[in-house]
Amino acid sequence: xxxxxxxxxxxxxxxxxxxxxxxxxxxxxxxxxxxxxxxxxxxxxxxxxxxxxxxxxxxxxxxxxxxxxxxxxxxxx
Length: 77
Fold this sequence. Notes:
The protein is mainly alpha-helical. It has one domain. The chain has 2 helices and no strands.
């Protein structure tokens, strides 16, 4: 019985981050789509919110590496 409970909690630890990420992405898409104008150049641009989110995440990763990771690693060496 202890092993089953352990497997259950291990499963939660594997699934929870994925579920939270999907939840955050879904609501971020909805929020950004609500901010964008309905018509751009006469038609709705599908996927624009996805591009904005991907660009933002990539930019945060780049800035995090430059401003946080590199100084920490340089100070340790």
